[in-house]
Design a protein that fits this description.
This protein is an alpha/beta fold. It is 27% helix and 26% strand. It is built from 18 helices and 35 strands.
């Protein structure tokens, strides 16, 4: 029997052949043998004796699962040579213990990137667990158990728990004891993840922070939890270790969950380029620029749903809990049939749903009631609880409203969460405000582009005592700046034209040399001599634009290709201890024609120089997002300011600040939600691990 396919988007094509061997009567000392002339043959999995479990086997015996390279000659003549004994392989596995990912294996990854290969020869086969496998036709007639889609035994947490129960080097117990062990492991490592979805009655209801808090809470319990947002529209994105681009909110939620972020968590990201067009990022990579009509009427309901489904399926098979974030409101009645990010996702995940409403905005009970009652009855029944967020003061006066809301909607209010002052990255540029001390002695002025991206780059500046970060869009405000930053943008060409229309370019040029100026990513490109978009990749038409001419740099957009990579490095005019870290997300390539580089950068491909510094040292540019997170460059940049230049910078890594605030957020939410009810809803053990 041959099956050809791909287990996940990371998988390699494979051919799987199941071979049955009839040993007949043999003594216990003899070993089963099988031969093959092909040098491409490799045993992928050999499993326990299963004659008593499947009538399709020929006289009972051992099942061998053999894996071939894609170019195997399927007409190979099988005869004669040796195959490794299953018992020896299982014993070898037990002796090796937890080996993690066997990247040296030529078939890695045969299931998914980052898999744990310690139990490649599954000790539980055949488990007959309908969640992990199914019976399939055998070429010899009858059926045989297939678990080719099972990822459970390749999870790090499952492997760790397995070897905590059976110490490396110990003997495997009999089938009954192995079955009991599997049941025990399933109590804390679910074979299929339980899904909880948080949706908002409005945008800004607090659903993103609620998902973040719940991810940290479940992680604190020892559960393998992961965030998920099917479709996010945001210009605030991050790069995963695999070089994939996902929304910043999901990356922050992954940090809360203490897991490495990847594109499964945000399979569709929309990055607005102009009013009617967005760049569509699919599974972390640029896919296509689409207008509203193309996206909703030709992509979302077909290909988009398929993308969401396959990523949800992967997470369901590799995690314990999925905490899903909706988008906007699930009750947008003008587009319910086109919306794939809310109820369609909830249905695909069979999720228990929570509705979040922000009481600070006023009309919270009306928002909650209206949202629930506009939904079809079947979808309304998916909502198990309502959460009121952002309460200032005591909740005592809310009781009459809560009682009426519960009685009229049939959905209980499971928590009232107070307002929390947090230092965490914001997701949406519509909520951009000042950062840091309102009475700060140093004004950090960030140009607020219409298509501003990755504005959280400057959160680390706002944590410094005496620093006030302002986002501005008028020339008059430039004159009040102690330092000026041109941030990233989704469309360098159009935002440069916007700056010229507003007169911001001349205002910035007028203060050059008097105050330090930094350009990050798109802002760096604007500070150069020229932006060549002859291929009309960045803007809507082919053009070559003059930059602000404050740095000797020329940028060219030559192909529809984006550099997305995490990097580390250090400042060139300092020591290697003057470290920076961050990530690059940009189209276009910049060539330095003079001046000095700013950083020496390391990525997965080696080292290179990044950025440019003007001769007087007052104008700088870099492609590095997150450049202020470590203290070295914060100090250098702020020290160049005139008035306010005496500001003392902290030595704190901004990541430490973020983690501290994630713990605070989780604690407040945990203390104000009915967690016992929530655990029961999800079928969790009474206590954490």
């Amino acid at each position: 029997m041959c099956d050809i396919g791909k287990l996940s988007r990371f998988s390699k094509p494979y051919v799987r052949i199941i071979v049955y061997i009839n040993f007949g009567a043999r003594d216990n000392k003899s070993e089963p043998r099988l031969g093959c002339e092909s040098s491409h043959l490799k045993i992928l999995g050999i499993h326990n004796k299963i004659g008593e479990h499947s009538s399709s086997l020929i006289g009972g015996g051992w099942q061998y699962v053999l894996s071939f390279l894609p170019h195997l000659d399927y007409s190979s003549n099988w005869k004669g040579a040796e195959v490794t004994d299953i018992r020896a392989k299982l014993k070898e596995q037990m002796c090796q213990g937890d080996i993690g990912a066997n990247t040296a294996c030529e078939y890695y990854p045969c299931h998914f990137n980052g898999q744990n290969c310690s139990l490649c020869f599954c000790p539980f086969y055949p488990c007959h667990d309908p969640v992990l496998g199914k019976m399939v036709p055998s070429r010899k007639g009858g059926e045989v158990w297939s678990c080719e889609a099972c990822l459970w035994s390749h999870r790090d947490d499952v492997v760790r728990s397995f070897f905590s129960e059976l110490k490396p080097g110990s003997q495997l117990p009999d089938l009954a004891e192995l079955g009991a062990l599997k049941k025990k492991l399933e109590q804390t490592h679910f074979t299929k993840a339980r899904s909880l979805m948080v949706m908002g009655a409005t945008s800004g209801a607090g659903k993103s922070l609620m998902v973040t808090a719940l991810c940290r809470h479940f992680s604190d319990l020892g559960l393998n939890v992961v965030p998920f947002k099917a479709q996010n529209m945001s210009l605030n994105s991050m790069v995963t270790p695999e070089g994939e681009e996902i929304a910043r909110a999901q990356e922050l939620q992954a940090r809360a969950a203490r897991v490495s972020p990847d594109a499964h968590m945000n399979p569709i990201l929309l990055k607005p380029m102009r009013d009617n067009k967005s760049q569509v990022i699919v599974e972390g990579r640029p896919y296509q620029d689409m207008d509203v009509e193309t996206y909703y009427h030709h992509f979302a309901g077909t290909e988009g749903v398929a993308i969401i489904k396959r990523n949800l399926d992967f997470l369901e098979r590799t995690r314990d809990i999925i905490v899903i974030e909706g988008a906007g409101s699930p009750a947008e009645i003008n587009m319910m049939d086109l919306d794939i990010a809310n109820m369609r996702t909830a249905e695909l995940a069979n999720a228990h749903c929570l509705l979040v409403v922000n009481i600070e905005w006023g009309g919270a009970f009306a928002y909650a009631y209206g949202t629930l009652m506009l939904l079809p009855e079947a979808q309304r029944k998916m909502f198990k609880g309502t959460i009121i967020t952002n309460l200032y003061g005591a909740k005592m006066g809310l009781e009459p409203g809560i009682e009426l809301l519960e009685r009229t909607t049939g959905v209980r209010v499971v928590g009232v969460v107070p307002h929390i002052d947090l230092d965490l990255p914001d997701e949406d540029s519509m909520f951009i405000g000042a950062r840091g001390s309102q009475a700060g002695t140093m004004n950090v002025t960030v140009v607020r582009f219409p298509r501003i991206s990755n504005f959280t780059d400057f959160d680390a500046l706002g944590m410094e005592e005496g620093v006030h970060v302002r986002f501005v869009d008028s020339p008059a405000e430039i004159g009040m700046a102690d330092v000026i930053v041109l941030p990233g943008t989704k469309n360098t060409v159009e935002d440069l034209n916007w700056m010229r229309e507003k007169g911001l370019d001349k205002a910035i040029q007028a203060v050059a040399g008097k105050v330090p100026i930094l350009g990050v990513c798109g802002g760096y490109q604007m500070l150069g001599l020229e932006i060549d978009d002859s291929q009309a990749i960045e803007g809507g038409e082919a053009q070559v634009l003059q930059g602000l001419a404050l740095l000797p740099v020329v940028t060219r957009f030559e192909r529809y290709e984006k550099r997305t990579v995490q990097v580390t490095g250090h400042m060139l005019d300092g020591t290697e201890s003057d470290q920076v870290r961050g990530y690059e997300i940009h189209m276009g390539r910049s060539e330095r024609l003079g001046g000095q580089a700013l950083f020496r950068i390391k990525d997965g491909e080696g080292e290179h120089l990044d950025g440019t510094v003007s001769e007087d040292g007052m104008v700088m540019g870099t492609y590095l997002h997150g450049v202020f997170d470590l203290p070295a460059f914060r100090k250098r940049f702020l020290s160049k300011a005139g008035r306010g230049g005496g500001t003392k910078c902290s030595e704190e890594d901004y990541e430490t600040v973020v983690q501290r605030n994630l713990d605070l957020l989780s604690e407040v939410v945990r203390n104000n939600l009915d967690m016992a009810w929530l655990h029961t809803l999800l079928g969790l053990p009474e206590a954490g691990r």
